[in-house]
Amino acid sequence: MSDMEALATRSRAASLSLQTASCKDRNAALSLIHKALLENADKIQQENKADIEAATKLAESGALSQQLVKRLGLSGSKFADMVHGVKDIEMMDDPVGKTTLATRLDDGLDLYKVSCPIGVVLIIFEARPEVVVNIAALALKSGNAVILKGGKEAAKSNAILTSIINDALSQSKTISKDAVLLVESRTAIDELLKLDRYIDLVIPRGSNALVRHVQGSTRIPVLGHADGICATYLDEKLDPEMAIRVLIDAKTSAPSACNSTETLLIHESHISTPFFGSLVKKLTEAVKTVPNVSAAIAHINSHGSHHTDAIISSSKENAESFMRSVDSADTFWNCSTRFADGFRFGFGAEIGVSTNKTHARGPVGLEGMLIYKFRLYGNGQCTQDYGAGKKSYVHEKLEVDEAKFQI
Amino acid sequence: MSDMEALATRSRAASLSLQTASCKDRNAALSLIHKALLENADKIQQENKADIEAATKLAESGALSQQLVKRLGLSGSKFADMVHGVKDIEMMDDPVGKTTLATRLDDGLDLYKVSCPIGVVLIIFEARPEVVVNIAALALKSGNAVILKGGKEAAKSNAILTSIINDALSQSKTISKDAVLLVESRTAIDELLKLDRYIDLVIPRGSNALVRHVQGSTRIPVLGHADGICATYLDEKLDPEMAIRVLIDAKTSAPSACNSTETLLIHESHISTPFFGSLVKKLTEAVKTVPNVSAAIAHINSHGSHHTDAIISSSKENAESFMRSVDSADTFWNCSTRFADGFRFGFGAEIGVSTNKTHARGPVGLEGMLIYKFRLYGNGQCTQDYGAGKKSYVHEKLEVDEAKFQI
Per the record's keyword annotation, is Repeat included, yes or no (chains A, B) (predicted)? Predict the structure, then answer.
């Protein structure tokens, strides 16, 4: 057995114990982690500082972007937010064991659809070390084991955070510390991607190139979180002041964010109007004119990334048509594309923004880490008792007691 | 552009038109198909007969199994069921445009999560030609375009059914006949699996080898419908008569079905009892004894296929532990594994039984063909207006009007 297979086996074993851990146990583990992070704040800052110093040197020589160095930081409010996030997740409702469907198939034969953890999730992410803590907390809350691979620039920060989490988990009686594992090398990922027997889902968060590489190298289902090519379309009739304000937010408030507007589509009637003039003064990049909302929709569906697209319009009809026809995870009317975010959407926690069209799409909260299983309670029924001239299924919808199977 | 890329482009165009087709339009298309199938019954029987004759010859020479020949048939009640299935699907509630979440992010900024079609779905299936009609009907109802690849033994039946569906769709004003396309060769599949730009989901229904081949050859998300290695565990305390009856149904009522029990686990206390004696007389295959329910769970989690597993027990505690801990799509108590089926579960229609742990698991009804998009309705909001010292999100749960966006 290779090292990576041994690691995946440990993760799988941890995931099986997590499947049966009660909400109380999972929350207790989060509480232990919260406490341990606060107690080890100095150690964390020390290791993070070492990462930043090394990265700063690389940035000075041009080998790394200044932006990336900035994203490595873990001090002040960033540290506080990270630690507080664990408490927030602890306080959330238990997403596991929720009944979403209950059907009486026949007398004494009742079917339930119940949410459960996916199992072992491999998450590949870049730069920001606080993702270790965010994802570990989300995974434990949802009963999943995770294998984490962070960016090498944050290696020391990722290692100390994982080690603190592991130490905290070793105080839990029910949850194995293997529930959160860290791997460091790229070759580890290539090996892990072959282990579809142990790993149930891989979530690559990063560039389109990373997501496509992962999709092309594994049998494991992939939930991709890639770049967006988001568009904002300025319709014929609109409030010019609103359009400019929203567009500036969408384009300039965080240009490298995945939900920032890249493409500006503008109704051709605005060309050579004062409105358009003041707009282009504020926005220097290329703009495409279109004759109508249908052309805007067609452009976005052909050239966009199916992430987030917005229409600024005074016409409800055009807005509805746009929101129905644009084949993207998020379609917005009269607001900034940058609202596409799990925290802004009120999900409390975010795994990322999915560019998939299956499983979970758009901003993904805890439910992206869950699937369901069916439970069927009988008293000796056989399928051969049913059919023409025999018993019939009743398929009676039962009232759903959402908490029936929660522990 | 290759032939297959041209075909995928047509499918994608049809899918975009389907995204905006009303429920009335989609149902009208189903009605046209229903009528056309009845009107062309003779033609269908003729082509099906040709398939069966060719397959029978192959079976006589041993090149094909008799079982497969049997599955090709499309006469009598099988034809009636197939045609009636289209009407059943037409009568079902519209699954598209259903609101499942509504949140006020702030005054005048409302978020909705709305079900929508996935887009273009590639479905690979074997033998039974009625799958063409089942899947086409499910796809149209759920607003998806499909590309179908059936078994070569049913080539003539598949072709005539697709041609009748296409002719019927050509009478629809809104839905393109390209919504249902058929490809014939294996090489077509290899080409299509590269076209992740156009195809959103691939559903291989068949052997484990087929599912693994597809998973290993594409970036497109795969919803696998593979063989099951289902287990039934006979616990220490149980009703012997019930155990034998359920087991016979589970093992022998359709031995080649994916939900048939392969593995019999039996509590060691039953060895050398009269109960066990009468059991093994009825069941000739190998049996594994285990010392307790935990060992049964561990065996199933290590050696099973995560499809369907059952426990026969008089102990509710053991049953609950089994159902929670067995990591399978379906976990049953005191009934046959063969209940794992979309029709028996009351889903009305079935895409198959998924062995995935993401997107859709176990018996999959229409909802397996759906995803969702987020719609955000604003009046000029910018993300930079929110944050410390600025506006706050309210995240107020709104009452959900499920039908708000249905057309």
Answer: no
